[in-house]
Amino acid sequence: MIVGGISIRELPRKKYLLPGNSSCPGCPEALGLRYLGMALGDRVILVVPAGCSTVIEGLAPNYSMRFPIVNVPFASADAVASGVATAKEVLGEDAVVVVWAGDGATADIGFATLSGAAERGDNIIHICVDNEAYMNTGIQRSSLTPYGAWTTTTWTGKKERKKDVPLIMLMHKVPYVATASVGYPMDFIEKLRRAASIKGFKYIHLHAPCPTGWRFDPSLTVEVAKLAVETGMWILFEAINGKVKISPSSLPYRDRSRRKPIRDYIKIQGRFRALTDKELRKLESMVDDVWDTLIKFT
Amino acid sequence: MKLVVMHLTGNYAVAWAVKLSRVKVVSAYPITPQTTIVEKISEFIESGMMDAKIVRVESEHSALATVFGAASSGVRAFTATSSHGLMYMYEMVWWSAGARVPIVMAIVTRTIGAPWNIWSDHSDFMSQRDTGWLMIFAEHNQEVLDSVIQLFRITEDPRVYLPGMIALDAFILSHTTEPVDVPDQSLVDSFLPSRRQPYTFKSGDPITMGNLPSNPRDNMKMRWDVHESLVAAKKVIMEVDREWGELTGRSYGGLIECYRCSDAKYFIIGVGAWVGDMREAVDMLRSEGYEVGLIKLRFVRPFPAEELAEVVRGGKGAIVFDRSVSAGSAGPLYLDTVAHLGALNVGVPVKNVIAGIAGVDVTYNDIAGVVRSFIEEIESKGVVSNYVEWYFG
Amino acid sequence: MSEISHILPLSKPKEGISKTGTWRLKKPVIDHSKCVKCLMCWLHCPESTIDVVESSEKFVEVNYEFCKGCGVCANVCPVKAISMVPEG
Prior knowledge:
The complex is a heterotrimer of chains A (298), B (393) and C (88). Chain A is built from 11 helices and 11 strands. Chain A has 298 residues and is an alpha/beta fold. Chain A has one domain: Rossmann fold. The two termini of chain A are 28 Å apart. In chain A, 59% of the residues are buried. Chain B has helices at residues 10-20, 35-46, 60-72, 83-88, 90-98, 123-126, 141-155, 185-191, 216-248, 275-287, 305-312, 332-343, 364-381; strands at residues 3-8, 25-28, 53-56, 77-81, 104-109, 134-137, 164-169, 178-183, 208-209, 256-259, 266-270, 292-297, 299-301, 317-322, 350-355, 388-391. In chain B, α3 (60-72) packs parallel to α5 and α7 crosses α9. Classes of the chains: A alpha/beta (298), B alpha/beta (393), C alpha+beta (88).
């Protein structure tokens, strides 16, 4: 398989996420961490705020990864990364400083810090690993939980829509904004490499279906991730210097008629079990709205 | 040695010390009365006088986070704040100490709201005493400059490897000009070695800091090591202050400084700018025949327990002035003092005076008056009736 | 000055911190005769427990000591060469 000039055979085989780690079976964050290693390898310094990845690291005095990792408090990640990147610039050392943050550390508690680093143009990559709820603390809703989804703080389904963070980051006029999905590893790896080649603030939003929190079988992580794209629920795009380009894997779904029914995506997840037909229609119109808005920037 | 006497506010003295210490990364967020420190540092950097980067962050939480990131990645880093700014970064204060990253932070002490108030008391600084940072309090602007440079040396000493904060009183020092000897760069270079730290994040060198411990006992030992290192820092503090004295002719007694204590029977204990007023009060009381001396605590952490006990032992009483209060109990300096003096069997009555909160002016006359009443009460009755006294002036 | 040792909150990488193979309810079994060497199972394994060995008998193999049995590999295999067999 060759995507964007990258061949699967040429991907590094070195393990950056090690066997015996503490992720749940079928974990999308574990997949994402592997792809990060394949894309950028030894150049990475990872800054990890509180979240599932904190646990995936495993127990001291060891850890289950081969990245240098700065573990940091929840709201601080982008600021710590700014400090790391600034120090490396002063010292003249090569490093790709990557914030590996969940939806909470990106869109909620860490949002001001993220926006600050983006506005300053600090030389870091922020990856939002979006599993659409506070999974590590037991599946509580976040501002990135989609409309209608059950969580342990929205027992009858979330009443509000998902915050569109990629577009908010686009409006920061940063040199690189992209979305990705654990169902499309080559696309993600290509985007990571492109981001690392650009100086300044880079944002990548990685859609990460979570079997534990979304209530689906762990063998289906990749299928669910692909269905999100095929139904138009998640749009893969890339914006270099503000110019939005829908990524090849999402391009067919610009045409609404080519999208699979959102019901296909909803029905294989337990978290949407209580969604009524009326609510499904509302969710569908929200998806159309997200597409319409994004297309205006292409 | 070339000495240059400049007229500097306390905040500018901090800025000059940071420049002389060859700090490489500065990050801060504006708050009165700290702001002029980073304004001056920005000016140094933008005019090419100082080779460093400044990260102008969006909050104090991010200011210390950025400094923590830079310092843990191999460079000397600095921030400054006050009051609500320090409260907002509180989580990062703990994280930096637990991570054992040498950092220096200046705290321009200001009261905490509500209500809004920009004047000095010590509530912000004293509320940090459980965090694991070294905590030094300056009396005047010369000591501010000297202590910032000393603090870089102490925090980066392998026996210590902890962050440190230096306090200076809002406006009384921060915005008041005093003559300050600014040492030559070569002198500071000879005193302050290049950056040392316990570990450094580098790409290609996989270590992690701060993942979950498999055994809580290991975690407890980390906290114990923070405590032990603070206690061990006492020796380093004494060495560093002595060496600075040999280079500049100025030393401050290391942990504590005694004024007219050798034949004193009563002791005033305090920290910060009003120690200057306490000196005046001692002179006044001495002229009236009272056998009183002054103990200035230079360090709040490590707490100079034995050093204090040695001076007070055999005396007839001590009076601790606190410019903050642990509401519902007593002043924090008093609590430390009575705990350690008691445990070390220094059996003298100790009184607490809580004064100057929220910026209320306290003069040497006020101090002398309170001390006079205290001594007279002990001399006549042998005990202190009101051992935690709120003094409103 | 002698080097002072502190008790620091630092960790080093280690493979196999937990014996996660014991979590497994189903075991992926590869029919190597069907394998088309596409690497999809290696690429999509969330655990780094599928190794590319490229020997004459097999192209890839599963590290059962740590495989958690999630079954992602079986689902992404384009020729259905991996079956999930219940653990005895």
